[in-house]
Amino acid sequence: MKTCLVVDDSSVVRKIARRILEELDFQITEAEDGEQALEACKSAMPTAVLLDWNMPVMDGYEFLGHLRRLPGGDAPKVVFCTTENGMDHISRALHAGANEYIMKPFDKEIVAAKFQEVGLVALPE
């Protein structure tokens, strides 16, 4: 079973992401910030992480650095979500270890396409 950790300080965004990813056959866990997400990864490393960039307590950038240093932390595919569209922002995230990015607001087609690009969702037949 593919698992995805959805990390966002917005309960609405987590709910929307959960609905989309469950339709793509992922089992979902949620975290409100990077600190909770890190604890979740220490308990059970997910297949993928849908990661908000701007959060209280620990932001997505800081979380990603910690994740990639954990044993097995190089394995999850990380797709970060942002409202920032500057190339420097996107480049910084990809350099930190993100595999792909999504601009907010997102929909099922965008999420499916990005998860397909990182090899987690098969092409529709």
Short description:
The protein has 125 residues and is of the alpha/beta class.
Polypeptide structure, described:
By secondary structure, this protein is α/β, with parallel strands linked by helices. It has one domain (2-117): 3-Layer(aba) Sandwich (Rossmann fold), CATH 3.40.50. The chain has helices at 11-23, 34-43, 60-69, 87-96, 108-117, and strands spanning 2-7, 26-31, 48-52, 77-82, 100-103. Strands 2-1-3-4-5 form a 5-stranded parallel β-sheet, sandwiched between helices. Strand 1, helix 1 (11-23) and strand 2 (26-31) form a beta-alpha-beta unit. Helix 2 packs parallel to helix 3 (60-69). The protein starts with a strand and ends in an 8-residue tail after the last helix. The model has no long low-confidence stretch (mean pLDDT 90).
